[in-house]
Structure formats: structure tokens, C-alpha cells
Amino acid sequence: MAVNLVRSARLYAGAPYAYAARVSAGDLILTAGASPLDEQGNTVAPGDAAAQMRQALANLRIALEDSGATITDVVKTTVYVATSDQGELVAAWDEVAAFFGNHDVPSTLLGVALLGYKDQLVEIEAIAVQPRPAREAAASHERTSPAGE
């Protein structure tokens, strides 16, 4: 499976992300929004969008791994930041950009009024395509995981 990031010479070249992604084969994975929650369900770092985004990204990585995918299998993200301050948006985005590195997939960054958990400032969801050979490993994990995990 290959994710080919598309960069158009006809669109602004300075965008910090690819404009599209083309996937050759695999199984589609749609994540729920990864929130900045710790293992006890508490929102981490109230008031700190960057720290919350780091936690949300760590949680996203776990959700992808448990689906048999990796960060490089991601083909699109949507990032939500509960703010009207562009500086807060940039702080959250900088964490996303650092996390994905050169795999700068198409992404949408949104400032929103409110998110679901108390003190929550950020959330990120991803679309990934799982390589076909990894499907058997993920299926094995599903059969051995306790209910609810």
C-alpha cells in the first residue's frame, strides 16, 4: 500500500501540507476524534492547547496502532481547536506538523466554539488506509483484546 501525497504546481507552494492524497490499496480506517484525555479520562493540561494536542496525538497513534495502521498510513486529518485566537490555532497546528513530520497529509484546521470534554481545547481525527498484510495482525489483536478495548 502506498500513500502518495499530491502537491500541485498550480496551487500555493508554501502550504504546510499536501493538497491531496492518493491511495493505491488497503482497508479504510476512520478514527473518532482523538481527545487530550489521560488513562483515567481526565483532560490534560487545561488552558494549554499545545500540550493537549501532544496528548491527543499520542492517543491518535494508539488508535491507529490498534487498527493495524501507523502514522504514515494516514491520508487526511481534521484538527479542531476551541478558540477564536489564531495564535492558539497555530500552536496546536505546530504540534501536528511536528508529529507528522515529512508525512504532511492533507488537513483541515478549524477554530470551533466548544468541544465535548470539560477543559478540552483540541481534538484530531484521521482517515488512514491500512496495508492489506497488516489486516491479519489487527484481527488477531481484536480477538485477544478484552471487551471494550
Secondary structure blueprint with pairings:
Layout: E1 3-6, E2 20-23, E3 27-30, H1 49-66, E4 74-82, H2 86-100, E5 107-112, E6 122-130, H3 134-144
Parallel strand pairs: 4-5
Antiparallel strand pairs: 1-2, 3-6, 4-6
Describe this structure in words.
This protein is an alpha+beta fold and 149 residues long. It has one domain (3-132): 60s Ribosomal Protein L30, Chain: A, CATH 3.30.1330.40. 30% of the residues lie in helices and 24% in strands. The chain contains three helices and six strands. The chain has helices at residues 49-66, 86-100, 134-144, and strands spanning 3-6, 20-23, 27-30, 74-82, 107-112, 122-130. Strands 3-6-4-5 form a four-stranded mixed β-sheet, covered by helices on one side. Helix 1 (49-66) runs parallel beside helix 2. The protein starts with a strand and ends in a 5-residue tail after the last helix. The model is unreliable at 143-149 (pLDDT under 50).
Structure characteristics:
149 residues, alpha+beta, 60s Ribosomal Protein L30, Chain: A, 4-stranded mixed beta sheet, two-stranded antiparallel ribbon
Number of domains: 1
Task: Indicate the proportion of strand residues.
Answer: 15-25%
The average pLDDT value, as a whole number, equals 87
- Helix percentage: 25-40%
Give the CA-based shape: globular
Order of helices and strands: EEEHEHEEH
Could you give the distance between the termini? 27 Å
What is the count of helical runs? 3
CATH architecture: 2-Layer Sandwich
Please state how the strands of the largest beta sheet are arranged side by side.
3-6-4-5
